[in-house]
Amino acid sequence: MRLTVFLLALLVLALQYPLWLGKGGWLRVWEVDAQLQSQRAVNAQLEQRNAGLDAEVRDLKSGNEALEERARFDLGLTRPGEIFVQIPAED
């Protein structure tokens, strides 16, 4: 009787091993799920950045106002007859 119970318990443990520690076991599922959540967070940040870049590209393609703004702030260009005045920021 004891041998039968021992063999059945051993069989149950042998059947549980792949479920918990095997290639497709729960531990691996939890690990992959954590990686998936991390990648989704990275993807969300990249989608936000891409949306901003897409909006900037559409602005630059659609009109001269965005080009002029970009030339003024990034390159420091002015129109003929304009005077550029820079006021230093207070600390």
UniProtKB/TrEMBL annotation:
Keywords: Cell cycle, Cell division, Cell inner membrane, Cell membrane, Coiled coil, Membrane, Transmembrane, Transmembrane helix. Residues 36-70 form a coiled coil. Its main location: membrane. GO terms for cellular component: cell division site; cell septum; plasma membrane. It holds the Pfam family DivIC. GO terms for biological process: FtsZ-dependent cytokinesis. Residues 22-91 are periplasmic. Residues 1-3 are cytoplasmic. It is a single-pass type II membrane protein. It is found in: Cell inner membrane. Part of a complex composed of FtsB, FtsL and FtsQ. Essential cell division protein. May link together the upstream cell division proteins, which are predominantly cytoplasmic, with the downstream cell division proteins, which are predominantly periplasmic. Belongs to the FtsB family. This is Cell division protein FtsB. It comes from Azoarcus taiwanensis.
